[in-house]
């Protein structure tokens, strides 16, 4: 398959272009310049591959959760590219991406949601892939590992020291702290995620509130 994948859910811009067994990657911290950098970097990848947009089989994007503005950028660009070349889009959750990167096992992913919260979900990875719980947002102290958890993944464990302190002492932290476009390609190739018309592309926000009030910020600092 020939696929283009993009993720702008963090300060990194992550792009990957696959052509059968070959893959070209751009993965770099761009801070808040996703809107300016994405299309030029996509053009560079296509040129390097000697491939036109219309030759692709689809556009893959990280649908969230993550930074709200970043998610909208990825979705909007994926839709625009797909419309222009009459291609389908494939939306994949960011936590699925982190679970895939963690390796085979029973993985608990915790992704920093800011506002003293994390996005979390449990997975069985490897040949019998399965998401074992819904993706949710919660305070670090409200997250508990399922019985049988063997791996921890995501930047929530780095950014919130109180998050599962006991479990972290006995379970390996698998490492990936941010989504990577190459993992989206592999997940899309699995066939687990539907290809849809770009008009039907959906984002996964998980939570609708994007900022704390002053009182809520003070309460969070006192925890």
UniProtKB/TrEMBL annotation:
First-tier enzyme category under EC: transferase
GO molecular function, one term: tRNA N(6)-L-threonylcarbamoyladenine synthase activity
UniProt KW keywords: Acyltransferase, Transferase
Segments forming domain Gcp-like: 30-125
EC number(s) reported in the record: 2.3.1.234
Superkingdom as given in the UniProt entry: Bacteria
Pfam families to which the protein is assigned, alphabetical: TsaD (PF00814)
Gene3D superfamilies, alphabetized: 3.30.420.40
InterPro entries: ATPase_NBD, Gcp-like_dom, T6A_TsaB
CDD domains tied to this protein: ASKHA_NBD_TsaB
KW Transferase (keyword) present: yes
UniProt-recorded name of the protein: tRNA (Adenosine(37)-N6)-threonylcarbamoyltransferase complex dimerization subunit type 1 TsaB
UniProt source species: Chromobacterium amazonense
């Amino acid at each position: 398959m020939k696929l283009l994948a993009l993720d702008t859910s963090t300060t990194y811009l992550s792009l990957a272009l696959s052509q059968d067994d070959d893959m070209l990657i751009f993965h770099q911290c761009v801070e808040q310049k996703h809107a300016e950098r994405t299309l030029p970097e996509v053009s560079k990848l296509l040129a390097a591959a000697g491939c036109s947009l219309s030759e692709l089989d689809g556009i893959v994007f990280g649908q969230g959760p993550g930074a709200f503005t970043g998610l909208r950028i990825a979705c909007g660009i994926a839709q625009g590219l797909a419309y222009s070349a009459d291609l389908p889009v494939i939306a994949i959750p960011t936590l699925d991406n982190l679970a895939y990167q963690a390796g085979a096992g029973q993985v608990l992913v915790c992704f920093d949601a800011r506002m003293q919260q994390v996005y979390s979900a449990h997975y069985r990875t490897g040949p019998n892939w399965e998401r074992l719980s819904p993706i949710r947002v919660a305070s670090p102290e409200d997250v508990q590992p399922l019985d049988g958890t063997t791996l921890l993944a995501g930047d929530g464990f780095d950014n919130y020291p109180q998050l599962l302190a006991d479990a972290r002492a006995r379970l390996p932290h698998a490492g990936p702290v941010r989504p990577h476009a190459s993992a989206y390609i592999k997940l899309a190739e699995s066939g687990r995620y539907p290809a849809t018309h770009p008009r039907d592309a959906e984002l996964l926000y998980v939570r609708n509130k994007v900022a704390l009030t002053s009182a809520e910020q003070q309460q969070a600092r006192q925890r």
